[in-house]
Amino acid sequence: MTMMSLNTMLVVAHYCRDNVEWDAEQEKEALAAVTKNSTQKMNAEDKEKFQNDADQFWDSFYSVHQNRFFKDRHWLFTEFTELATPPGTDVQKTRSIFELGCGVGNTILPILKYSQEPNLKVYGCDFSARAIEILRENKEYDPKRCEVFVMDATVEDWSVPFAEDSLDIIVLIFVLSAIEPTKMNRVAANCFRYLRPGGLVLFRDYGRYDMAQLRFKSGKCLEDNLYVRGDGTMVYFFTQEEVRDLFCKAGFIEEQSVVDRRLQVNRGRMLKMYRVWIQTKLRKPLNEETK
Ligand SMILES: C[S@@+](CC[C@H](N)C(=O)[O-])C[C@H]1O[C@@H](n2cnc3c(N)ncnc32)[C@H](O)[C@@H]1O
Question: Of 70, 104, 151, 214, which has the most beta carbons under 10 Å away?
Answer without folding.
Answer: 104
